[in-house]
Write a structure and sequence with these properties.
Structural class: alpha/beta
Order of helices and strands: HHHEHEEEEHHEHHEHEHHHEHHEHEH
Number of helices: 16
Shape: globular
Amino acid sequence: MTQAERRTPARRTVLGVAGATVLGASPALTAGPAQAAAQAAPAVAASGAHGRGRGYRSLPVPTVIGHRGASGYRPEHTLGSYRLALDLGAHVIEQDLVPTRDGHLVCRHENDITGTTDVADHPEFASRRTTRTVDGTAITGWFTEDFTLAELKTLRAKERIPGNRQENTLYDGRWTVPTFEEVLRWADEEGRRRGREVWLYVETKHPSYFRSLGLGLEERLARLLRRYGRHRANSPVILQSFEPSSIRRLAKLVDAPGVVLLSGAGTRPWDFTEAGDPRTVADLVTPEGLRWISSYAKGIGPTLDLVIPRGADGRLGTPTTLVRDAHAAGLVLHPYTHRNENAFLPAEFRRGTDPNAYGDSFGALKKYLETGIDGIFSDNPDTALLAAADLTAHR
């Protein structure tokens, strides 16, 4: 099998379903790629055990979150990436939000759009290239806060990491940068078409930085959630941020559940740095820190290394007590991020010498899912769903 064949999600989904008889699916091996994906995805989507209760507790466990959509196969944060994630069976689709100069929320992983749009090819915007300090780091490029929405809409999205995902560059220029309001309308339309709610997982990016510019994210986000009826405790939406104060602010504006994202143990949330709060992530993942988070949030989104650390050799070590401790505090855990390529996998699951080839992704996912995490962010949701099926089949 060639590398291109390995990276065709429809083909891999069909083969996976054919092997995962526990799902009870009919492997449509004679169907075309689009038809095969459509037939396989519902069975794969049912791979997790159904949650208990309403709202976010009703989601299958493990929950598979399409990280920026299906970003392993399409340029991230495009309607094409979001739609493919749904087609592959993802339970939830993630959006990252940053503002434009005129206050519209748009979906980009960062406000620096140099690597995710064709802005550099627009001579009319050459003078907008500048250096900004975002959360203490100086970055040179083009930034959403320097563009009106109308200007931003003249740009086209492209693959962020073409060195790793050359195949995705096929889709460069196909989609514009979506506004969050467009995504809300799209999710409602897709929900009606598919006969089920489309869950969204929405992150506020650099909220303290944008508030300092007069572009506060939380109030804008809350207004949109209310406008589209996604502000309630049981609405199909989860809110997330690396800044705890953003989740606390949102908790006062809407009833939708919040999740605190956690980076490396030695790092500090930027709002802590600005406020002079000496606590680091290492403090927040203690039982005391987790109880504090549970006073205003429903879950945490830790880096996978906080669940199972990697040693100096890049191999997985012994799982920490984070899953147990978070559950004891009443929190769900949705760690990030699973990716299929060798470059992103623990050393023992890499195969061959090509960093961009797929390694033993199922082996790595098995290790992570066996810790008892409640879900996982994945660039390759079809792979994660099959791993979840393997897990639930052996429980």
